[in-house]
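User: Could you write out the 3D structure of this protein bound to zinc ion? I've included everything you need below.
Assistant: Certainly. Input first, then the structure.
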Amino acid sequence: MNINKILKVMPYVLGGLILSLIVVMIIIKIGEKEQIQTPIQTEVTAQAKTGKDAGADEALGEQSDKSGKDATDDTGKTGSKTTDGQPGNSENEPIGVEAGTDNESSLISNEDPTGGSEVEDEPLPTPSATPSPTPTPVELIFEDKDDYVETKSDVNLRVGPSTDTDIVTNLKTAKRIKRTGYNEKWTRVVYEDKECYIYTPLVTGVFEEPTEDGNATGGKKTGTVTLTQGVGTPNGHIVCIDPGHQTKGNSDKEPLGPGSSEMKAKVSSGTSGNTTGHPEYKLNLTVSLKLRDELVARGYTVVMTRDVNDVDISNSERAKIAADAGAQAFVRIHANSSTDTSVNGVETICMTNENKYNGELYASSRKLSDAVLNNVVSSTGAKKRYVWETDTMTGINWAEGPVTILEMGYMSNKEEEEKLLDDDYQNKIVLGIADGIDEYFK
Ligand SMILES: [Zn+2]
């Protein structure tokens, strides 16, 4: 080979190499762009069962409700309206709405193919510039589902799984609707008897139950435990929510704590509203389901001890459900009652430092109790009572992780009962609890 010849050809060879390098880089860049908006979604809905039979009459289970004994520091009277915290978050739609979602641009926001300020919403119809290999069939393959999803607010339901198809309706607020199919991009739902499609990243949660209303399902004697994992950014924390009581109490006895010879009724049916007669167990479930949704939206994994009213789960069994799930916070939702109808306000309950069953959980449980109490008081403006430390609660004594009972307010007090049954007020309570839980884990 002649060296001169090689030297002559060299510039052409090098030039050719550089050119092809540039071409390759351009191709890679285009490839990346196409992959950018892969939806992030994990959702798990698992189910477990706690077996039990034997329904029985109600009994005084947890003494908290009956003994609400307003102790010393209670001035009652006018109460209620004192706002020592902020007036609470006055958003109308706290449940399932993620912070910073787009409410302002309503109709246009998810749709606007021109401005497109909202990155996380529906994908814009792919501009024809990029030579994509026609619509991926993946979008048309649906995994069968038979459950319920909650949407963000201001989202479109469409005729087909594509932004090119017509809009059936725009959901102004977060809604829970039936889901029949799923893939990473599109979720098939049934809305007002019509089959529609919603862009999957606009779905915030997956649930087994259709509504807030866990009506008795007819002699259901076992509790359904549902585990719902956030579809947003999971924060790694597991919370167990225990909606206090159930349709019918169970006066059979169980030990007050592990190894205790002292026995207590398994579970009572709770108190009820003085004026309306609305049962506490229903209120507890209503608020608990809202709380579940809020926590899931915040990235928590949530385990419910029950999600219907007609169950038979004792207080120690509820603690066991929380322990088995590895709950890092066991939050028990109750409402209070007192013979003195002027008594009102919020309190939380945990064990004492000397509790012989699980005193080692005192510090964390007290911290959780303080955080929940303070935040509920500031979100609702309700009267702050105190953290009651007691070792008389079966469900606390059997707990294997940080635990608190929230007594949301007094159903024996006319004004507070009215508030407790009010949807907006319940939402404030829920925000307070969720903020308290956030604070606890901070
Ligand atoms: Zn109760």
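The pocket of zinc ion is lined by residues 62, 65, 244-245, 270, 280, 334 (CB under 6 Å).
User: Perfect, thank you.
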